Amino acid sequence: MTQTLSMSVLYKKLSAIGFSKRFVREKGLPSWWNEELDNKPAAVLEGAGHIAQRLHLDLKSLLAENQKPQFKPLLHTKFKYHQQDKADVPDVAHQLASRVAEVVADTIKLEFQPIPSDPHQVRSEIVAKHPQVTLYSLLDYCWQHGIAVVYFKNYPKKTRKIRGMIQWQAEHPVIVLSSGNTQPVCLAFDLAHELGHLALGHIQEGILIDDDIKQGCDDREERDSNQFAVKLLVNSFDNSIGHKKFNNAKDLKNKIIQLIQSDSTIDPSALALNYGWYNKDYFALSMGCVNLINPAKEGHKTINKFLEQHLNWEELSDDNADYLDQILGE
């Protein structure tokens, strides 16, 4: 195959496993790549090396003639499904997320400190340093305990996505969040859910993947992690509004402000989200209230700003620096 090696050949092979030409150009190749290199075998061979590394592929299978590209073997993986076909594994998404976790772990120096299994104790530790339990204070808590957190959502368009992942790497956990809902409180809930998995001992090695995070899951560990997250975010105010109907988001906001006067450590947007958690018919109203309280939708940027501050950029290879720059720049 080396005699006829070209990017068009690689694009065709990669499209068979879910990677479009555009995705490979934007995410699989380094930023300095240009079309003039597409038909130069030596350059294409180097490009294939970058693609294999960034997309977590076995290079030999990528280059082999008449062979489908194969992903690299992963650590032992525990999948958390939500009433979906358990044979339907989100291979592409969790392979890409795993590669991100590897690169992040290789570029930071952390010592993991176990977190309490009691969410109220975790909450007390957070509010001893911060006025409220928010995405920002949760991130600070994670990094102080040697838990790296990254937001990553660079998946091919038609690929089945994941919501969150924990990967043990270099003796400390890396949490990858991938929700398309970037309101800080929504990402705070997802992060608190993943912390629940860690705190409750659901993962002590390998990888745990949440394909989604929902109420009413029939998985005991998922239910326990949901409850951990709820108690961490809203303390004793869980479902405190009940099923009361509201005319609009402003009325719901006023009710929330009234309720939490006795506990200023609760983020009011977390209680708005909690109302939607228990009232699916009014979820749109609850999200309207979230936007009324905090219209910013840049929680993903907050996550990766923390990450950027903890990276040891001087220890990164040029290719990994380019790769992470692509991720953090979104």
Overview of the structural elements:
With 330 residues, the chain is α/β, with parallel strands linked by helices. It is 48% helix and 7% strand. The protein has 14 helices and five strands. It has helices at residues 7-15, 21-28, 41-54, 59-63, 91-106, 119-127, 135-144, 184-199, 220-234, 249-259, 268-278, 283-293, 299-310, 318-328; strands at residues 77-80, 148-151, 164-169, 172-177, 207-210. The protein has a five-stranded mixed β-sheet, with helices on both faces. The radius of gyration is 22 Å and the shape is elongated. It starts with 6 loop residues before the first helix and ends with a helix. The model has no long low-confidence stretch (mean pLDDT 92).
Mean pLDDT: 92
**In percent, how much strand structure appears in the residues?**
5-15%
- What is the CA-based Rg, rounded? 22 Å
Task: Give the end-to-end Cα distance, rounded to a whole number of Å.
Answer: 36 Å
Strands, count: 5
State the helicity in percent bands. Answer: 40-55%
How many H/I helical runs? 14
In terms of quaternary structure, what is this? single chain
Low-pLDDT regions:
none
| Approximate shape | elongated
Structural class: alpha/beta
Largest sheet: 5 strands, mixed
* Order of H and E elements: HHHHEHHHEEEHEHHHHHH
Strand order of the largest sheet: 1-5-3-4-2
Question: Which helices and strands appear, and what pairs or packs with what?
Answer:
Elements: H1 7-15, H2 21-28, H3 41-54, H4 59-63, E1 77-80, H5 91-106, H6 119-127, H7 135-144, E2 148-151, E3 164-169, E4 172-177, H8 184-199, E5 207-210, H9 220-234, H10 249-259, H11 268-278, H12 283-293, H13 299-310, H14 318-328
Parallel strand pairs: 1-5, 2-4
Antiparallel strand pairs: 3-4, 3-5
